[in-house]
Write a structure and sequence with these properties.
The chain is an alpha/beta fold and about 240 residues long. The chain has a single domain, classed as P-loop containing nucleotide triphosphate hydrolases (Rossmann fold, 3-Layer(aba) Sandwich). α3 crosses α4, α3 packs parallel to α6 and α4 crosses α6. Bound molecules: adenosine-5'-triphosphate and magnesium ion (MG).
Length: about 240
């Protein structure tokens, strides 16, 4: 089943002389269970593509479908509800709410969607545990967490509930390489469990966790291929 479908999607930022063709006539389909990496130079349109896929931005032309629904057909309220229920988003800069604890940040999408506070907290603690944060850390505020811990909270928030589409923009930026690998394993596992995943990364080793790598250049898909040998294979090679 196709979870994400971009059909001839273009996005022009600005207008007139300042117009930037950030994404040009892009087609992309991601099925349930599939984990796709996007690579490309700075400014090639990676974040633009992710924002369109998550309904945070709308295409200038073409269509974005999530679970078969054309996002442009939804009104603001329905689009917001769809984002909370179906889409998990890990932003490059975490985007945690400073006045909420780690557990409250992770629980936010559920609470906004009407889940009771008690149940939301329980699920948030479980999601935080999944990313390696304990109950004590769960009650800390973002400014009491290290960059790596804050990043894990952002990932827990994206994975909480049963999101069918997980989008991550350089989610390992603030993490050391071991923690970064753990986060990718987590995304991989979520895709193996049936989600569709889309990861923006500059790191070929991270792309190695994906089923497929899409390369962007100047707003166009220039290549789609299997990733380099996956991280596990590389590690095995290093050990022997
Ligand atoms: N809101 C905006 N207004 C104007 N131009 C924009 C806007 N957002 C992105 N752009 C331009 O669109 C192009 C694609 O940007 P985008 O952020 O998608 O690239 P990227 O591949 O994510 O880059 P990076 O690796 O640096 O994060 C760039 O030329 C950028 O300057
Ligand atoms: Mg970007």
């Amino acid at each position: 089943m196709t979870v994400l479908h971009l059909k001839g999607v273009s996005r022009v930022h600005g207008s007139g002389e300042n117009a930037v063709n950030a994404l040009i006539d892009t087609d992309l389909q991601i099925a349930a269970g599939e984990f796709v990496a996007i690579m490309g130079p700075s400014g090639s349109g990676k974040s633009t593509l992710l924002n369109l896929a998550g309904g945070l931005d709308a295409p200038t032309s073409g269509e974005v479908l999530v679970e078969g629904i054309v996002l442009a057909s939804l009104n603001k309220k329905k689009l917001a509800a769809m984002r909370r229920r179906s889409v998990g988003y890990v932003f490059q800069d975490y985007n945690l709410v400073p006045s909420l604890t780690a557990a409250e940040n992770a629980a936010l999408p559920l609470e906004l969607d009407g889940t009771g506070t008690g149940k939301a907290r329980k699920l948030a603690l479980a999601a935080l545990e999944e990313v390696g944060l304990d109950a004590k850390q769960a009650d800390r505020f973002p400014d009491e967490l290290s960059g790596g811990q804050a990043q894990r909270v952002a990932i827990a928030r994206a994975l909480i509930g049963d999101r069918r589409l997980v989008l991550a923009d350089e989610p390992t930026g603030a993490l050391d390489s071991t923690t970064g690998e753990e986060v990718l394993k987590l995304l991989r596992r979520r895709c193996d469990a049936g989600a569709a995943g889309l990861l923006v990364t500059h790191d070929a080793r991270h792309a190695g966790w994906a089923d497929r790598v899409v390369f962007l250049r100047d707003g166009r898909v220039v290549d789609t291929s299997a990733p380099l040998p996956d991280a596990e294979t590389l590690l095995e090679g290093a050990e022997s």
